[in-house]
């Protein structure tokens, strides 16, 4: 094996090992909320809206470079999330408890109602709970774990429900005073990483948020 390839493999092995370490430290939701998640959940407690930017990386087995997209998002606790990709193309993805709507160039290009696809409701609940650090609701379908290194923390989630375990193997949420990164590892070996930045909180839902995060049934 060439030296460069060997170093790459070593780095990947080290990164995976560090990521897996969090799962060796099981904790209850109450332990997480009173311990390593105390500061970030306190910042979220009075926030009705969270806005920020994201970098999404999708690592596929057999492809050396990840697929990368960038954009911004608005998460309104009582409505859902508007996930707006700006690069490499413009696409608006709205996720609510009612369903999923995708808009390209301002027009609906895909729509899935939660009533017709119960899995959509599950995905929406999980993703919204992850962004709001609602580990209490996640505890019913995930085994929780957590580690802290100074001001940095990691929370691991392992599905305990077969239907969810068939979609992804585990998830790792990490950050400091705020959520910084979410990693999802699929059952087939692929993984996704979302890096959050420039997070801002608002105490009330503005009209622009209601316009952006529309019900899945909106035409």
Descriptors for this entry?
42% strand; disordered N terminus; disordered C terminus; 11 strands; outer membrane lipoprotein receptor (LolB), chain A; eleven-stranded antiparallel beta sheet
Describe what this molecule looks like in 3D.
- With 219 residues, the protein is an alpha+beta fold.
- It has one domain (24-212): outer membrane lipoprotein receptor (LolB), chain A, CATH 2.50.20.10.
- Helix content is 28%, strand content 42%.
- The chain has helices at 3-21, 29-34, 38-45, 118-131, 135-138, 162-165, 207-212, and strands spanning 49-59, 67-76, 80-87, 91-96, 99-104, 107-113, 142-149, 152-159, 168-175, 179-186, 191-202.
- It has an 11-stranded antiparallel β-sheet with strand order 6-5-4-3-2-1-11-10-9-8-7.
- A hairpin with a 2-residue loop joins strand 5 and strand 6 (107-113).
- The chain starts with a helix and ends in a 7-residue tail after the last helix.
- Mean pLDDT is 83; it is low at 1-17 and 215-219.
Find the CATH topology: outer membrane lipoprotein receptor (LolB), chain A
Rg estimate, integer Å: 18 Å
Describe the sheet with the most strands.
11 strands, antiparallel
Low-confidence stretches: 1-17, 215-219
- Write out the strand line-up for the largest beta sheet, numbering strands in chain order: 6-5-4-3-2-1-11-10-9-8-7
* Individual helix count: 7
Could you give the count of β-strands? 11
Fraction of helical residues: 25-40%
> Under the CATH scheme, which architecture would be assigned?
Clam
Averaged pLDDT, please? Answer: 83
Give the SSE string.
Answer: HHHEEEEEEHHEEHEEEH
Q: Could you state the CATH homologous superfamily?
A: Lipoprotein localisation LolA/LolB/LppX
Strand composition percent? 35-45%
Total domain count: 1
Overall geometry comes to: globular
CATH class: Mainly Beta
